[in-house]
Amino acid sequence: MPPFSYSIGIWQTQKAPEAMVIGLNNEVAHTLLNDYHAMVCQGQKIQAESVRDDFIEDYDVCFKPVAKQFYSDYLNWAMWYYKGDNFEVLQLVYSSNAGVWPWDDAATEPFKVEQPVLHA
User: Fold this and answer.
1) What residues make up the domain containing 13?
2) Residues with Cβ within 8 Å of residue 112, at least 6 apart in sequence
3) For the chain, what is the domain count?
4) How far apart are CA 70 and CA 84, in angstroms?
5) Looking at the domain assignment, is residue 119 inside a domain?
6) What is the DSSP letter of 107?
7) Which pLDDT tens digit goes with each residue over 6-43?
8) I need a labelling partner for 34 at 20 to 30 A (CA). Which of 19, 55, 94, 112 fits?
9) In a domain, 120, yes or no
């Protein structure tokens, strides 16, 4: 499994989806999750399926809703915290430096493996 990180508590405190990122080292992933949390706390609404070019310099990101079928594989601590799967999560999916998404035909196999998309 590639490395992954996710937030816990945003759903409870801000009534906004938790966020997760896959395929980045912990330092970068935690910075992105903290940035997401700060944006939510400032009142920004991050919509599922939205593409943003203002989140990571020189990269587009897309926020994909995570399907509940993946919760038990990736979100065990969040499921413990919320006492089940009654919360939403958005996966921050980043494009390659060439602007290719993991679901694009042009995406390389290593890029797809590095960043599996957990959307149903």
Assistant:
1) 4-114
2) 102
3) 1
4) 13
5) no
6) -
7) 999 999 999 999 999 999 999 999 999 999 999 999 99
8) 112
9) no
Q: How many Cβ atoms from other residues are within 10 Å of residue 79's Cβ?
A: 16
Q: Examine residue 44 and state whether it is found in any structural domain, yes or no.
A: yes
Task: DSSP letter for 68, please.
Answer: G
Q: Measured between alpha carbons, how far is 101 from 120 in angstroms, rounded to an integer? A: 16
Which has the closest alpha carbon to 11: 112, 74, 82?
82
Q: What is the DSSP letter of 67?
A: P
Summarised one tens digit per residue, pLDDT across range 61-75 is 999 999 999 999 999
Contacts of 48 (CB under 8 A, 6+ apart): 17, 63, 64, 65, 90
